[in-house]
Amino acid sequence: MFLRAHKRRKDGKVHLYWSVMESVRAGRRVFQRRALYLGELNDSQREGWQRAIEAFDEKGNVRQMKLFPEDRAPQDDSGDVVRIRMNELRVRNMRNWGEVWLGLELWDKLGLDEFWSLRLEQSRKGTDWLSIMKAIVMYRFSDPGSELRMHSTWLANTAIEELIGTCALTGRSTLYNCLDRVLWPSEEWKKPRKERQNSFKDEFFYFLRDRWAGLFGSTCDVVLFDLTSTYFEVDGTKAFDSELQRYGYSRDKRGDCLQVVIALVLTPDGFPLAYEVLPGNTSDKGSQMQFIRKLEQKYGKIGNLWLMDRGVPTEETLSEMRRDNYKYLVGARRGHLKILGDKLDNAPWQDVQSGIKVKVVHTDSTKVKDANGNEIEIPGDTFVLTRSSARSHKETAMRAKKIRAAMRTLFSLDERIGRGKWRKMEPSKRELTRDELLKRLTLAEHEAGRAWKMIKIKEPQPNEKVTPETFTWELDWDRIHQARDNDEGTYLLRTNLTDCDPKTLWKRYMIQGEIEYAFREMKGDLGLRPIYHQLDDRIEAHIFTAFMALCLLQTLRAIAHEHASGLTPRQIIDKFKTIKMVDVVMPTTDNRVVTLPRYIEPKQEVAMLIDLLNLTLPTQPPPKISSGLTSTSQGTM
Fold it and tell me: How are beta strands 580-587 and 592-599 bridged, if at all?
């Protein structure tokens, strides 16, 4: 195995993307196979991978062992000796093992058994709720879907019996009953929703805060806050009785579906701290202080600095945060550029990073009118105007693409009225009417978006024909140059921190991408979207199990960042999926069957990953001896 770099030129720069390659012999031919894709690596990360490959190759010598000793038949036929019919040996029941084992290792690293063993006890009938909930979280972590799919397909195709125990193999109704118990103690669960107290979710926050600090040194001094939504694929018959299912603004472009809103809080390192489930019609603007009040009531004041996107807080929210001595760093609306005016124009640019410049302006209290015409007061905050050259080039190209598409429509209209770009043309035999012209222009405006403002268009009056004199257009170069100078590649930040370096402010705001990553993982890889439940308790339990799976995923991400940089958690999980478990079935001479459950030896790149992540494969499960009549009823692979 070796490292190979692939060059790619982008924006005038040469980027190197690294992969772990493996030489494979097929007959007389030898070819290279990509074992792992690592992406861009710095020098220390590349040297770390090189050392890992060299160390693994030194330890990777495999010695073939004989299955049985040469002296097959012992002299005495004691009860401990079992004779095998080698000609009837077979392999059957291949099932998933590696990704679930990885999830359980992360579960143990977080110490979740310590938290849940005191809260989920066995029922009087012997149902092990902890094992069932652990199986549900592993399902969310490895191959998410509905509870029906988990019962009908996933449990049968996964080595749950060997990894968790036979108590995790259960019916569909028990899976739903387990969801009813993961949020509330039994005495609280029987009460109406509004009268319940002391949920497991609230206690889980305290547990997580201590675990993130102990394992990775992550603190809650700076917290990230944002909202997202997820939709339902149900018939909606029980939506009238639900407090959560509502129609609202869908971030998934599914405004036709009922939805719920999820407010999430993370640490700067991307570790989840807490969340709240809100009704689907909750507005971003009015939800933040409501969420902060809930956090204060449950956990006390957390976070010395709150990071938020520009669409979340309002002026009223920010004034309440200042009154309660909260610090914030938020994205500001572009309308503030007009308020700042000459102060921002006269401020010098400062380089904070290659291709990144900032302007810092400290303002006094100002009174302006909001969108509804009401006069509001903007206090003296610090505003940071940031410009990214790479983002500027990208937005320039995006705007130019939309303008060119609009110009193609305008040129086609010019041909209809006999106006050529370079030469005179005869008008089309089919006359262009004013109504048809307005329809074509409306469609072009919709496709061009805000870039349509860069084109000056003169339309004919209601009683005029469409001619080269009554219909004209040209590019508004003044607006185009103004957009390139002021708009493209820029965004405005706002904070009430008094003494802070602009470079530090910019770097802190950049970690806002962690919460977008968490939402993407929850909705995509962890199966939070869509939701198939209709009862509010099970909706919240579904989100809670996805939240626990997110904790496992972020733990894996942190470990990979330290020991296997360049790999994403999903890439690692996909590699572990190649480790399967099979049953080696060996009939005996006395009509019994010895079944050996065995996980297969991992491939070389997977074995290297196990070594890098400081994991140790467990011992193989013990053999099972049964009568031949019992074993022949199962299929053979």
Answer: antiparallel
Which candidate, 129, 159, 130, places its Cα nearest to that of 142?
Answer: 159
170-210, pLDDT tens digit by residue?
888 888 889 988 998 888 877 888 888 888 988 898 899 88
b/e string for 546-559 if b means 16 or more Cβ within 10 A?
Answer: bbbbbbbbbbbbbb
- In three-state secondary structure terms, 310 is coil
- Among residues 188, 130, 296, the alpha carbon closest in space to that of 537 is found at 188
Neighbouring C-alpha atoms within 13 Å toward the C-beta of 5:
13
The 3-state DSSP class for residue 29 equals strand
Residue type, 109: K
> Given the DSSP bridges, would you call strands 382-388 and 356-362 parallel, antiparallel or unpaired?
antiparallel
Question: What count of residues does the chain have?
Answer: 637
- Joined together, the tokens standing for residue 348 give 């010098």
Spatial contact of 573 and 99, defined as CB atoms under 8 Å apart: yes
What is the DSSP code (8-state) at residue 459? P
Distance of CA 393 to the CA centre of its chain: 27
Taking CA atoms, 570 is separated from 237, 521, 525, 563, in Å, by 36, 9, 8, 16
Whole-number pLDDT of residue 416: 84
Nearest to 192 by CA among 602, 507, 536, 449: 536
Per-residue buried b or exposed e for 248-277, using 16+ beta carbons within 10 Å of the residue's own CB? bebbeebeebbbbbbbbbbbbbbbbbbbbb
**Strand 305-308 relative to strand 350-353, pairing:** unpaired
Residue with tokens 């640019």: 349
| Region of 217 on the Ramachandran plot (φ > 0 left; ψ -120 to 50 alpha; else beta) | left
Q: What is the pLDDT of residues 459-511, one digit of tens each?
A: 999 888 888 889 999 999 988 888 887 778 888 888 888 777 888 888 888 88
The 3-state secondary structure of 581-614 reads EEEEEEEECCCEEEEEEEECCCCHHHHHHHHHCC
Cis-peptide, bond into residue 597, ω within 30° of zero:
no
SS3 158: strand
Burial class (CB in 10 A: 0-12, 13-18, 19+), 62: exposed
Instruction: Give the DSSP letter of residue 195.
Output: G
C-beta of residue 359 within 8 angstroms of C-beta of residue 329: no
Contact 258, 341 (CB under 8 A): no
Residue in the structure block whose two tokens are 């029922």: 123
